[in-house]
Amino acid sequence: MDNLSYLSNADSSYIDSLYQLYQQDPEAVDFGWQKFFEGFDFGRGSGGDTAGSQTPEHFLKEMKVMGMIYGYRQRGHLFTKTNPVRERRKYYPGKELETFGLSESDLDTVFNAGAEVGLGPAKLRDIRQLLEQTYCQSIGAEYVYIRNPDKLKWFRERMERERNTPNLSLDTKKRILKKLNEAVVFENFLGTKFLGQKRFSLEGAESLIPALDFVINRGADLGIEEFVIGMAHRGRLNVLANIMNKTYKDIFAEFEGKAFDESKPYGGDVKYHLGFSTDVETDSGKKVHLSLCPNPSHLEAVDPVVEGISRSKIDFKYQGDHSRLAPILIHGDASVAAQGIVYEVLQMAKLDGYKTGGTIHLVINNQVGFTTNFKDARSSTYCTDIAKVTLSPVFHVNGDDVEALVYAINMAIEYRQKYHNDVFIDILCYRRYGHNESDEPKFTQPVLYKAIEQHPNPREIYNKKLLEQGSVDANLAKEMEKDFRALLQERLNESKESNTYEPNPMFSGAWNGLRMATPEDFEEKSQTAVQEDVLVGIADKITSLPSDKKFFKKIEKLFEDRKNMVKNRTFDWAMGELLAYGTLLNEGFRVRISGQDVERGTFSHRHAVVKVEDSEEEFVPLTLIKKDGENSNNKFDIYNSHLSEYGVLGFEYGYALANPQSLTIWEAQFGDFVNGAQTILDQFLVSAETKWQRSNGIVVLLPHGYEGQGPEHSSARIERFLEQCAEFNIQVANCTNPANYFHLLRRQLKRDFRKPLVVFTPKSLLRHPLCVSKLEEFSDGHFREVIDDSYVKPEKVKRVLFCTGKVYYDLLEKQQADKRSDVAIVRVEQVYPIPYTQLKEVKEKYNKAGEFIWVQEEPENMGAWPFICRKFRNSSFNLDVISRKESSSTATGYSKQHISQQLYIVGKAFEDTAGNEVKKAVVKTTKKVVNVD
Questions:
Q1: Of the listed ranges 466-470, 575-579, 748-752, 887-891, the one predicted with least confidence
Q2: What is the C-alpha to C-alpha distance for residues 494 and 256, in angstroms, rounded to an integer?
Q3: How many CB atoms lie within 10 A of CB 141?
Q4: In a 3-state reduction of DSSP, which class is residue 141?
Q5: How far out from the chain centre does Cα 814 lie?
Q6: Cβ distance 22 to 37 under 8 Å?
Q7: Which one of 304, 376, 405, 676 counts the least CB within 10 Å of its CB?
Q8: pLDDT above 70 (res 930)
Q9: Long-range contacts of 500-508 (CB under 8 A, 24+ apart)
Q10: Is 280 in a helix, a strand, or coil?
Q11: Is residue 379 a contact partner of residue 372, using CB atoms and an 8 Å limit?
């Protein structure tokens, strides 16, 4: 017969198709199936001994054995011995022989299916033993959902050949014991010497330390020169001490409170949030740089930052070679399952703009989150099930079996280096104490913690195992503990006697040559002007389309219009922005922009990337800008991001953190959506300098302005940024002309310090006929924090209107239409740091004015007014405000109401003492007067 159609089980059609494929080309099926079908064909032939007696019934059982093999590969992880402190949940069907249609009577029968696991024809007993040892012991492997046959084969052959069983040298075993000893004794020492202090100990998960030690050593042997590590607070001190080699003396000094320095303007952070970087030497003599990123208590917030730092270093330091740097993310079981940022970051893993060559994910699975049991913490089977989204393999490992963990970690780093994909290690362990050392866990987990109380630590378990093997002397562990404890005591004594404490220097490595900003720096004008001939040359390049390619007619018209701007020496917003990027590239800097739709721009203004018609081919004009002369690192990168704010802003913050010589920009699709990234803003962007002494020059572009588009497309929440402004931590700007925006962007890289810059960018102004700048404003000028009114004479002015952003043009239109020479309009382009000097000059200039009014489009409880009101409450300005009335929503969704509100604001700004102007303005638009006062 030509097929296997006599089989009556559900797999027959699949087996049929495989067999037919084998008949056409034996190499077209896996090796195991080749051997199986060879036996089947031989059994069907005339000759033969054992195989020749093969019957359809036996062949059916062969299929069942194959089903058992695939069953173990697919579901064996559900039946492992991976939980150190309690019974695993039960899953049905199980792995009994009957599950696969086999029985005990088949155990000594020889099956050709043994070839599938590398045994050749073998007894069922031996096949099952191999599968049990490989898939159901201390390592549970999830990998069969991977859709790449080469990766599947790599895992299958590696694990089944070695049966997922470590075979370690005596020296390796002693090193594992040494690292376990350090982990256990360090926690015990802190617990006895600093009673009552929070440390979020690693106790119960000490196997993490040898695991990290081996991933670094094995990674170095495979070509990795640097690891960037992110983790939350649990176990951080142990990692800092025993992996990062932060001195015990410095750690103890932090417990003693000596990290606080009244002479420095830092608020600092708790010791279990701090970062560190260092160089270590591996066993094989290779140098590896390690960076542990600081992280707040917002679990997983550091994940995108780590990826951004990693990508930045890969781009700059390693010339795009992913194999020389690897990120490591250490998660908690509750957070990796529940925090949405994990998903956002995983979706970056294979995107061109964000990939880092694969991340090693280590999950410290305490089986409890704060006080929440795992059954209440997720709906998924495993906390790591999110890994399947990106087809990342997962290994669930018993945290008490440190050799199995080392084995899995080595396999993970080999896979990462070979395939440049993410891989997860789920370390099943426990938390010795409550959420912190003073917490009582029996309040919420009495049964679990009764078991934990009686459970030996991983060092005791491993030492006992080595003693039983005869691998080590009975006194080795005791001597290790004694020596290490003595060392810790010595370092503690030194920390008490010394008054010095030296954290990682703030301005080293890529930041060498930069410094902290001072208040005086914000009074100085940066040299951001560019010579006219250089500007024109760059403008010509970026407004020219290749003549040999055909583009969409609207694109051709757009570039023709831009070319005319060059001829007319007048530029709109988009050209001002592109010229800022082009001139920085021309000076050897790198420019990176990402966000949703940034290539074209949400409002179709940028068109930094254009498509060739009827093609996916792209043309990026700014890539034509090359720095002449010496080798330069200039490069223009722009990426449309996936639909993420939290993840992408965190990534770009990390990118800017690793290299201050890049203009790194994140743009929100609408500024309103930045609230999705509020954690990054709060925990990193506005506070990292004072908490962790780390500067950053990221630029955040937030389209903002009231144009009748409703509550979700009007406000980027200026008030939220300003309420966090203090100690010159960030810069907040809302520019009104292209040249000022040009100088603002260039200023980011033209000073010897870095500060985050938040810019509230326009929408309608992108095409406003008055929102243009002359060439000379780019070539002869600088960023102007305040722009005065050039239309009025100071001695005639009775009222001064201060404003920021787009509302200026509404006020200007009214001023010019009514020829109001008695009202001056002053633009505050930089809202923070507040340009007090320039504002005082304005006050002195208009000394005849009786009124100084802040005008804004936002409701009174939003926008810049709450901040301005507070900052000027005791000043001679005696400011009043004109705005929408206070509101719980940012803007109305009704067009007529929006128009009437906007006209009210403008009319109110110019009304006479009788209030006639505002009434007339509102009635002109709608019969219904809306009370916005």
A1: 466-470
A2: 12
A3: 24
A4: strand
A5: 46
A6: yes
A7: 376
A8: no
A9: 501/250, 501/253, 501/254, 501/258, 501/259, 501/261, 502/250, 503/250, 503/259, 503/274, 503/276, 503/693, 504/275, 504/276, 504/277, 506/693, 506/694, 506/695, 507/695
A10: strand
A11: no
By the 8 A CB rule, do 804 and 854 touch?
no
Q: Say what the pLDDT of residue 925 is.
A: 35
DSSP string, 671-690: GGGGGGGHHHIIIIITTHHH
How many other C-beta atoms can be found within 10 angstroms of the C-beta atom of residue 289? Answer: 17
Token code pair at residue 589:
């800097």
Per-residue pLDDT, 22: 84
Q: What is the strand order of the sheet 880-884 is part of?
A: 786-787, 823-828, 799-803, 851-859, 880-884
- What is the domain partition of the chain in residue ranges? 12-137, 175-504, 526-779, 786-925
Instruction: Please say if the pLDDT value at position 904 is more than 50.
Output: yes
3-class DSSP assignment, residue 476: helix
CATH architecture of 786-925: 3-Layer(aba) Sandwich (3.40)
Q: Are strands 122-123 and 226-231 parallel, antiparallel or unpaired?
A: unpaired
pLDDT digits (tens, 9 = 90+) for 418-463: 999 999 999 999 998 887 777 888 898 889 889 889 999 999 999 9
3-state secondary structure 813-855: HHHHHCCCCCEEEEEECEEECCCHHHHHHHHHHCCCCCEEEEE
Q: What is the pLDDT of residues 206-230, one digit of tens each?
A: 999 999 999 999 999 999 999 999 9
Q: Please state, rounded to an integer, the average pLDDT across all residues of the chain.
A: 90
Residue with tokens 């081919």: 617
Kindly provide the residue ranges of all beta strands, DSSP E only, lying in 792-850, ordered along the sequence: 799-803, 823-828, 830-832
Residues in Cβ contact with 827 at an 8 Å cutoff, skipping those fewer than 6 apart: 736, 786, 787, 803, 804, 808
- Please say whether the beta carbons of 212 and 329 come within 8 A: no
Tokens, residue 327: 């990120």
Q: Which residues contact 379 (CB under 8 A, 6 or more apart)?
A: none
25, 33 in Cβ contact below 8 A?
Answer: no
What is the rounded average pLDDT of the residues 285-297?
Answer: 93
Distance (Å, whole) CA 279 – CA 238: 17
Residue 51, H or E segment: none
Radius of gyration of the chain, Cα coordinates, nearest whole angstrom: 34
| Domains 12-137 and 175-504 belong to one CATH topology | no
Confidence of residue 867 (pLDDT cuts 50, 70, 90): very high
Q: Looking only at Cα atoms, what is the longest distance across the chain?
A: 117
Kindly report the number of other CB atoms within 10 A of residue 679's CB atom.
17
**CA 762/CA 444 separation, integer angstroms:** 53
Q: Strand, coil or helix: what is 323?
A: helix
pLDDT at site 675: 96
Q: What is the CATH number of domain 526-779?
A: 3.40.50.12470
Q: Which residue has the tokens 């021309």?
A: 586
The superfamily in CATH containing domain 175-504 is Thiamin diphosphate (ThDP)-binding fold, Pyr/PP domains (3.40.50.970)
753: which 2 tokens? 């310090």
Tokens of 634: 């200039």
Token pair recorded at residue 92: 């049905």
In which residue are the tokens 């938040």 written?
758
- Structure token pair of residue 729: 């931590």
The residue type at 135: Y
Number of other CB atoms surrounding residue 295 within 10 Å? 27
Give residue 275's pLDDT.
83
**Of 209, 207, 82, nearest in space to 141 by CA:** 82
How far is CA 194 from its chain centroid? 34
What length does the chain have? 933
For residues 242, 247, 248, 249, the Cα torsion angle rounded to the nearest 10 degrees is 180
Q: Which amino acid is at 419?
A: Y
Q: What is the pLDDT of residue 626?
A: 81
* Nearest in space to 759 (alpha carbons), one of 716, 708, 823, 807: 716
Q: Which residue has the tokens 């010496």?
A: 630
Pair 314, 358: CB distance under 8 Å: no
**Superfamily for domain range 12-137:** TPP helical domain (1.10.287.1150)
